[in-house]
């Protein structure tokens, strides 16, 4: 099997008769300086040496959105959808020597009488969302189009007998600890019916474990499916990084004819794990209850720029923030991102790219069914993916389209949880769209929450790259709205003070987001399993240089909310029941110190722990006490009744009004710090 890359410099033009200009492939055309919606005509000349006893496939790894493909003047096929890999058999058209490839790509702007309520493009957040260029504005909400040949193009030379699509591995965990693998190998036989031999090698990645399966199989002409079953006695299970190691296996499949000649070889990576979510939203990973400390992620608006360096940086920042699960929000990302999550031990909730409302025709439903099958087939082997979700925040489609997608996904993949829709009921926004963030005390949207948060301005160096100086201060609100800033929630719900400068506004905005996230997440986490089964904060990183709910901006500069997320998402977290930011001096003396709790999301028992409580005013330590915590059971929550001496110590040392800090350190018997947290309170 040989691969011939067609990546590199191509030619393009917008209209017939125009001169062709240079463009890089792969790329989204916007990133090449082409701010355009509609058709772009691509052209590529290439040379290749062919053999008569081989098959040749022209493969596209990602084109946004419609495309028509011609080779040497002949139409060879069409495709719709932005995320799929697709291919064409080109034996009869490909020349030995020079060839001309022409691709018409159409990424249209949907008409105003269709967009946004009757959309027909299955692109999710890439053509309608409140974090994209222009937000949801009727005139500007489809700006900066994502069209283009955004992923690689290649010619693949194969034997007449070869693998079609991707080998799929399903795993079943048995009660005795063994794992049974079902290996599905799709084969194309473009030759006469014959017997072949398959050789499978399964090996551990980073650990010693090797298995082989050899089997002779008779193939009919055309498409064939081979199912092989292998039982592993002591499998290494994939799990999240905070619970162990995300063990992965490599499967290498070789196809040979009976003379021993290699026909094809293919390798895939897979993991063995069991994920279950019941009808009360209780999560189980490998038989153990699991609490997702999640975030929503839209890492870029243009997938061609999301390279291995960006992915590695995001994974590092996610783990540093103690995130163990991500929701790929209303879009499908590139294979490399899911591979990175597999290797990092980060669980993935995967949305199908339907965002808000779509047309109600049979043609659209048929297209959506086909594309959700493509999604499941293409990303099936990633152990990190635990959920397929059919639509985000649907309206009328909730009762007409989503049940159909649910049935399709359920039939396609019985190993994962299928969520019919991520409804508004999962998405509470106290402190942003409603009321005050203290409402999180009542645990809105319990038991499972997969969106909550507040906007925050990015750092000053980032926002200065976003707009012109005269648009920044005083703010030109129409320009700010284009960059996704929401005026009404900022000032009329959150009541954030602008201050007297851009720097003050940024400080106040980031402080507000940080306080909201800390209060919300601590309230949710301390009610783990009793009332709350999992949370996904919205959102992690900006998909373009904008003002959104992210805790990390487009240039990967963290906001204050990132530091808070890192603290409140610690796998082991100590905290206190502090339900107010201000307290009267007399009230504090009467009530004393709030209750203490410890959350343990790990599978480890922590024994003989103690907590150090430090009271400060500025940098001055006013009091420092230690209290016994005792044992913290694995995967549980413990509340601690504080001793009277601590209450008296706090009371005696807060003698006047002002801002105080309470620092908490959870330590083991060797005085190693297990968890740290802190609170500020204003005494009035």
Give a verbal description of the structure.
This protein has 684 residues and is an alpha+beta fold. It has 4 domains: 2-158, Jelly Rolls; 161-270, Immunoglobulin-like; 275-568, TIM Barrel (Alpha-Beta Barrel), CATH 3.20.20; 573-683, Immunoglobulins (Immunoglobulin-like, Sandwich). It has 13 helices and 36 strands. The strands form 8 sheets. Strands 26-25-24-23-22-28-27 form a 7-stranded parallel sheet, covered by helices on one side. A 6-stranded antiparallel sheet has the order 3-2-4-9-6-7, with no helix packed on it. Helix 3 packs parallel to helix 5 and helix 10 (502-525) runs parallel beside helix 11 (560-568). It starts with a strand and ends with a strand.
Write a concise keyword list for the protein shown above:
Jelly Rolls; TIM Barrel; 13 helices; alpha+beta; 4 domains; Immunoglobulin-like; seven-stranded parallel β-sheet; 36 strands; 684 residues; six-stranded antiparallel β-sheet
